[in-house]
Every structure is written in structure tokens, then in C-alpha cells.
Fold this protein.
Amino acid sequence: KLNAYTSNLPYSPKLIIWFNSVDPDDEEGDDNEFSRLKVLEAGFPKATILGCGCTGLVGTDSSGKGVESEHRTQRFERCSILFIPPWHNLQIETLVDSAEAPYRPELKLPRADAALLLTPDNYLQDIGIVNDNIALCGATPDFVYGPIRALLFNNIRSAVVLLPHNLKTEKKVEKEISKLKGKFNEKNGFGIMLSCTGRGKNFYKGKKNVESRIFHSIFPDVPLVGFFGYGEIGFSSKNTYENPDDFDIQTYDEGSSEDQFVDNDDVFHGFSTVIMVISQQV
């Protein structure tokens, strides 16, 4: 099915974001997930591919509705793939782990419009940002395919909202997600939802697909992908504040050698959900 889909894609993607559900008890992985990766690599050799294995997925089904497939309730493999076309002036930079320092506990992000981080094993301890208008979103999956740990986007429109652990009602979720309205172009954008494994159905007293359903009720034409992980990274971006002066996130000076990091309580979270939207700039 993946072979057939990729062969009929009407454009050559610049970026592929790929989330694959896995069995957490299978430490060596499954042949299916690696065969999917080979299909993507063979079909689009020039595309940047960021992928991870996780115990639950967020996706958009064929009818355009959001689906949250929690692994603890559905123990079978699925994958959620987003193909991003080569938008005009879109710039994507990758940050990779090196053989000399595969697990860097500190990360100073360069200037960017948006950043997507994946940190297996929760090894990341400090994050620095240079521009306070960045849209930052990340999480801890079971593992990441390949050395890429972060994507940096420029020449795009973007925004992020954080749904913290104490935000539990549908009305409040809708209020927060609605803050993304007008912050990106819905006709050529996408959403990424990274949620804690402690949320989902059990968090909302048996109700399924609460956050993805609300997202699509507000943004019916916007595809949504994501996964359930073990720790979330990010904060509500400055452009979602009614009063930008209320935004208070520590930045660092590019010309300084001092360690200046975002307060951990502001950027690392548990039992939360981080939702980022990105679109073409025009």
C-alpha cells in the first residue's frame, strides 16, 4: 500500500515526517517498520526523512477526521506519514547526533521560525533559544530512525500551544487550540500533535480522540500527525498570547559564551500535549 501511494504522489516531497507504532516489548524492532523506511528512501532519495518508533499514533484518516491510536488499547502496527511539498523559499535544516557526542544533554537552537525535536531516552536536559518568536515542539519517542534529532524551519508561518497536565476539560482544550487560528495558512499547512502516553482515552474519562477531534473541528482541512511519547517539549508560542508582553521565556545572546537556557519547568513537561502548526509563508 505504501509503495502504491508513494508512486502516485503528485509531487516530490522536500520533507517526510514518519511516525511508526511499535511493540515496546520488541527491543529489536519489526521488519515491517524498516521495510517502510526503505520504501520512503527509495521513492524519495532527495527528501529529508525524520522518523521515530512510538507506542501510539495520532493521524488523519481517509475521511479527514483525527484518530488517536493508543498502543495499550490497539496492539497492532500502524504508521502516520506526512509528505511536505517543496514550498517556495522553504528552508529546512537538520541537527544530528555525531559519533563523538551521540547524546548531547544541552542544545542551543540557532535562530529559526520553528523547531521539531525528538529526544529518545530523555537525554536532553537543557534547551536554549535565541529568538523568542520561535515555535518549539518536541517529545520523547521509543526510538528515532537515523541520526536526525531536530528539524529547523525557516520562511514559514507557525505557532504552538501547550495543553498542560492540569487542563482536562474539552472546553478548555478548545479554547487553547483556537489560539492557533489565524497564525498559519490552513489551505497549505499541517499540524503535529505530540502527547503523553498518560493522556488519551483514560485522561478524558473514556472519551476517545478528544484532542485530535477538537483540532479538526477547528481546522477541518488541516492534516494532523503525531504520537504518544514519554515527555513533551515546548511552550505556547509568543504569537498565541493576547498580550505578547506576558510571554516570558529566557533567550540567549548569540554573541555570549555564557550558558543561558530556558527554565526547565517552561520547556519540559509530563502528562501534557504540544500542538504545532506550520504552513507556507505566503
User: Anything to note?
Assistant: The longest strand covers residues 156-163. DSSP finds five helices and 18 strands in the chain. The longest helix spans residues 31-43. Residues 183 and 206 are 32 Å apart (CA to CA).
